[in-house]
Amino acid sequence: MAQQDGGHLENIRFGQGDTVVILDQTRLPNETVYLTLSTAQQMYDAIARLQVRGAPAIGIFAAYALAALAGGIGAADFDGFYDGLRALGAYLDSARPTAANLHRMVTRMLDTARRHGGEPLESVRSALRGEARAIRAEDIDMCRRISEFGLGLLHDGDGVLTHCNAGPLATSRYGTGQGPFYLAKERGINLHVYCDETRPLLQGARLTSYELQQAGVPCTLICDNMASLVMKQGKVQACMVGCDRVALNGDAANKIGTSGVAVLAQYYGIPFYVLGPSTTIDFACETGDDIVIEQRDPAEIREMFYREPMALPEVDCFNPAFDVTDHTLITGIVTERGICRAPYRESFQKLFPEHFAAAEH
Ligand code: MRU
């Protein structure tokens, strides 16, 4: 049975002892299965296999995982404990390269441990659990704010096209790229969402259309190659997507296929919005050329989700998990502090001056 968090599906939580419980996103929508993870290997695999996925969610999960694993670090003093924690953090961080949130939250947990370095190890462990919960609570708040700003860009009766999954499962609550749709539903604003199925891993079909359907948001699932047609038919007034890493110039990495949607939107004169928390903006990354794109197993293209393989095993496959949408195709980047517009660097600087302060002095 689905476990609820105040009426919301709970995707990440602490379990008994030093464990983390996640909703296995690879089994949705047909089965609601919770996994109890206790080892570093299980936690690494959960990220790598996308049992937990979505940029904010893997950041939150890494924080919970480190807090849980900290219970098993048997060191005599803080230095030994910290070395163990740092090694575990590096291991989890190496599970996926593209989303900024994973590295950022691992770093934040290590910083937390150092801040409590002079205290007994039990206090450090307890501080790490508190920090993980704080990271999740902050994400809930950011998603809510992003959803408010995003909803302000839409009108009653609009059709909105989205790609991949950037809803509650990919975050904590509401979501980013899809958060405005849930808020609209709560407020009686009528939207119709077109969900790209999102080949090859079908996050749009398996997760987004599932979440929207469960919430009673009107939606239509389309194959990725139908986006142009629905836009041409006038069914789409805006596109909204999430993001995995945003560069200072506004280039935004998101699920493979996102940049194609942006190109189509520009052709048809439809605004294209990227929605994401500041934890996804990489303030040290100048342009999208600096973003590492994860390459995944070709089997995901050839055979996964098919009853039988759809290509010969020897067929060469190219399977990048993400692409970068050029900033010139993006109408606005919606953050928890407001909507950034080109030139993005200046816009980020205005809303997030604290991330630029160090570089200026
Ligand atoms: O490979 P995934 O499923 O983790 O990719 C997820 C996406 O691309 C999402 O759109 C992105 O992480 C934003 S989640 C709020």
Describe this structure in words.
This protein has 361 residues and is α/β, with parallel strands linked by helices. It has 12 helices and 15 strands. Strands 8-7-6-9-12-14-15 form a 7-stranded mixed β-sheet. Strands 3-4-5 form a 3-stranded antiparallel β-sheet. Helix 1 runs parallel beside helix 3 and helix 5 (121-151) crosses helix 6 (179-186). The longest helix is centred in the middle third of the chain and has 31 residues, at 121-151. The mean pLDDT is 96. Bound molecules: 5-S-methyl-1-O-phosphono-5-thio-D-ribulose (MRU). The site of 5-S-methyl-1-O-phosphono-5-thio-D-ribulose has 20 residues, from helix 2 and strand 11. 5-S-methyl-1-O-phosphono-5-thio-D-ribulose binds at residues 50, 53-56, 99, 164, 166, 170-171, 175-177, 203, 242-244, 254-255, 321.
Quantity of strands, as a count: 15
For the largest beta sheet, what order do the strands appear in spatially?
Answer: 8-7-6-9-12-14-15
Q: Which small molecules are bound?
A: 5-S-methyl-1-O-phosphono-5-thio-D-ribulose
Kindly state the percentage of residues in helix: 25-40%
| Radius of gyration, in angstroms, nearest whole number | 20 Å
Average pLDDT, rounded to a whole number, is 96
The helix-and-strand class reads alpha/beta
**Number of discrete helical segments:** 12
